[in-house]
């Protein structure tokens, strides 16, 4: 295997362990924060996690304010609301506490708060010219890996187009990984985010952008998530397995930052846009078919074989069955007549270009047909 050149600057410090939320005050102080905006969603506020964070910050002598209104798949509207609150409060430090949506809104807010303008100005990479506020990301789901990425995924409130806005300065200073915070999430969230994390490990493992550095994190991310997934399904309070999932998702997030994603994500977005399928389910239902498609390339088949001793596509399908997740897109109301439009949209996805085996619109239609 030839080694592709890479340039990876680790930007995010990882703090992992049960009960590490208690260290949040000390960490904010270390980075010079005094007025801390906590960005979160109503479910997390209700679970009492924001109140706990506020308590630790107060103990450390810091002022804090909670913006707890983040919605799923955050839009420019959510970000604008958050920016208004941050300005009013005079925040000099931001914490994203919750799932990918909370962490993305926190990052999105940081762009506008420090660099002005609107979210669209930062669509792409490296468009922020001024320094940004220090940020701590605290995930409460094991899924997106947003805590280890410099990108915020924000939708246009009108067109619903998802904009990936990234800048090295937007990466969290610290990703605080406390498995205890992931125990209370609803079963369905555990399942969907878990499958998403597994797919991040497997997609990053084979993209044409993969490199020796990202491969380390893809491999370890898969190993951890694969070991933890069935265990958390059986026993949601299994803290060791929760830790495996949380760390595995973060590692897979590091891999995405370096090697992007592939065709399972290209196929998933149209299913979400047109049939309202939850992201993790949309990726999961397509993943076995993408693995079979990519395995036609001998070098990719060899990578899959090194990840799992047996048929990897079948193994993913088995995990979906274990999690009681749909394994056919017809379950969501997709019919043969829908496939051309889905395939056309899939081909236009940003991630399609990174799949190791190039795809035509016909290839995408065939993949959807296989999953029907
Ligand atoms: Zn994903």
Concise overview:
The chain has 372 residues and is of the alpha/beta class.
| Share in helix | 40-55%
Q: Which strands sit side by side, in order, in the main sheet?
A: 1-9-6-4-2-3
Rg measurement, Å: 20 Å
Which hetero compounds are present in the coordinates?
zinc ion
- Arithmetic mean pLDDT: 96
Strand content: 5-15%
Succession of helices and strands: EHEHHEHEHEEEEEHHHHHHHHH
Largest sheet: 6 strands, parallel
Assembly status: single chain
Low-confidence stretches: none
Q: What's the end-to-end separation, in Å?
A: 36 Å
Total helices: the number is 14
Structural class: alpha/beta
The gross shape turns out to be globular
Count of strand segments: 9
Characterization of this structure:
With 372 residues, the chain is of the alpha/beta class. It is built from 14 helices and nine strands. It has helices at 24-30, 42-46, 49-59, 76-89, 100-115, 187-204, 212-234, 239-259, 263-275, 279-294, 298-307, 312-322, 339-347, 361-371, and strands spanning 13-16, 35-39, 63-67, 93-98, 124-125, 135-139, 151-155, 162-166, 174-177. The strands form two sheets. Strands 1-9-6-4-2-3 form a six-stranded parallel beta sheet, with helices on both faces. Zinc ion binds at residues 196, 200, 265, 279, 283.
């Amino acid at each position: 295997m030839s080694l592709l050149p890479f340039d990876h600057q680790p930007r995010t410090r990882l703090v992992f362990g049960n009960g590490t939320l208690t260290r949040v005050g000390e960490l904010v102080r270390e980075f010079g924060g005094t007025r801390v905006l906590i960005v979160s969603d109503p479910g997390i506020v209700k679970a009492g996690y924001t109140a706990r964070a506020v308590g630790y910050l107060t103990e450390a002598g810091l002022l804090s304010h909670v913006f707890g209104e983040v919605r799923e798949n955050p839009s420019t509207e959510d970000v604008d609301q958050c920016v208004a609150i941050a300005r009013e409060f005079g925040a000099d430090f931001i914490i994203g506490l919750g799932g990918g949506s909370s962490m993305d809104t926190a990052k999105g807010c940081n762009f506008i708060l420090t660099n002005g303008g609107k979210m669209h100005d930062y669509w792409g990479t490296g468009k922020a010219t001024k320094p940004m506020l220090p940020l701590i990301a605290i995930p409460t789901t094991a899924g997106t890996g947003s805590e280890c990425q410099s990108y915020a995924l924000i939708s246009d409130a009108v067109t619903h187009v998802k904009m990936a806005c990234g800048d090295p300065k937007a990466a969290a200073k610290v990703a605080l990984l406390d498995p205890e915070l992931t125990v209370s999430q609803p079963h369905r969230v555990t399942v969907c985010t878990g499958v998403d994390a597994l797919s991040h490990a497997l997609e990053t493992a084979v993209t044409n952008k993969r490199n020796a550095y990202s491969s380390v994190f893809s491999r370890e991310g898969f190993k951890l998530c694969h070991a933890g997934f069935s265990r958390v399904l059986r026993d949601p309070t299994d803290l060791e397995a929760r830790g495996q999932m949380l760390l595995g998702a973060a590692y897979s997030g590091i891999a995405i930052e370096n090697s992007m994603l592939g065709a399972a994500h290209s196929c998933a977005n149209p299913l979400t846009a047109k049939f309202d399928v939850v992201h993790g389910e949309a990726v999961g239902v397509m993943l076995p078919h993408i693995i079979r498609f990519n395995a036609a390339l001998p070098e990719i088949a060899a990578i899959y074989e090194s990840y799992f001793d047996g048929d990897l596509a079948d193994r993913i399908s088995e995990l979906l069955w274990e999690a009681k997740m749909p394994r056919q897109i017809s379950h969501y109301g997709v019919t043969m007549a829908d496939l051309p439009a889905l395939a056309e949209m899939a081909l236009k996805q940003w991630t399609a270009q990174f799949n190791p085996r190039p795809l035509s619109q016909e290839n995408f239609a065939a993949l959807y047909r296989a999953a029907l």
